[in-house]
Every structure is written in C-alpha cells, then in structure tokens.
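Protein modeling request. Please complete all fields; requests missing the sequence field cannot be processed.
Requester role: graduate student
Desired output: 3D structure, token encoding
Chains: 1
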Amino acid sequence: KSHSRNYDAIVETIRLDHIQAAKETVKSAEIIAEYTRDVDAECDSLVKILESAQHLTEVTRRTEDLIISKGEKLSCRFMTALLQDRGVDAAFVDLSDVIHFNLSKGLDESFYRKLAIALAEEVYACGDKVPVITGYFGNVPGGLLNEIGRGYTDLCAALVAVGIKASELQVWKEVDGIFTADPRKVPTARLLPAVTPSEAAELTFYGSEVIHPFTMEQVIRERIPI
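Delivered output (226 residues):
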C-alpha cells in the first residue's frame, strides 16, 4: 500500500529476534558486536528494497527473490558467528553477486556448468576457513524462486559439490532419508537404505520432496554420491 509503513515493525521484529538469538548463544562480545552490525545492515537493506517496491507499486520476481534471500543471509550470518564463537574459523559467503557470465541462452547446461565453477571459486577464496554459504545465488533470468523453486538451496549445494569435485554431497533434512512414500501421509512408509539415481529420479517425479530433481541431475552427471 502506497502510504503504509507496516513493514518497518516486521523488519524490526526480525532484527531483534536475530540479535537476541546471538546474545543467548554467543559468548564473545566482539563477535556479537560485529554480528549485530551485519544484521543491522541486512535489515536496513531490506527496508530499502521494500521502499523501492512501494514507490514502484510493483513487486517484481527479482524483488521477491531479494526479499526472500534476506532470511537465509541472516541465518548464515548467525551460523558463522556461532561457529566462530565455538573456535571454528568460519567465513560468511554471500553468493548474491556470483553470476558474472553471459546468460544469453537461459538456464541451460552451459549455465549450470559455469555457475558450478563460479561457486567453487567462492569456496576456494575462503582458503582454510569453513565457508557458510547462502543458498541464494543471485539474479537468475525469470527469477530464482520462479524458475527453480524453493529447492534452489539444495541445487546450490549440488553445484558447489560439482565445482569443487567433492567426494560426496550430504543434504540434511527434517526426515531421516528417502522413504517409500511421504511418511506424513503414509504411516507404513519405510526408510530406504539406498536408492539408485534412476529410482531417486522416479521418486522425485512422483512427488517426493526430499531432493530437488535439478540437484539429483547435477551430481549424478559427475558421479558424486548423495
């Protein structure tokens, strides 16, 4: 709405929630101070994005992606601060600007190959530090959420695995693995000890939400076990 500022209170709630979480879990005052500055900057940026959408009276796909990406940026900054506080030399890696190559042909295989290389470079740039990476990887033609969907974070992990030629990809979910059916809908669903790539692809085709089909495709091509 053109004259509403209701989003200010929402952003402030998000800001305070993240800062409070750090105060409850992080011991180092120095790390908390730096983390608070980072959270403030992300929230200020979010307000500017919302103001821009308000002035334009339009929420484009690009704007929607940017708004949604703030949640995981804040989560990654929190995880980085938490790891650093526990003595792990971690680095926050923001992938918003990772796409610097030509996108003339859209999201074809060439795009994913170039993206995997670009993501690997970001990981290698961390040196010996543990990278904490945003699943959001920037401005994709047609919009990241629209073109790929909410599984884009898994896809990002798969492309990093391909780019660094990882020995395996681990995807941690709210379920114990791949079941014969959705355990929330089918009480007798059984956990499968292992599945072949073709079986996994078939399960995904029939509605399994455990792993995004694009994710499967990328790592299977490189023979990386998930």
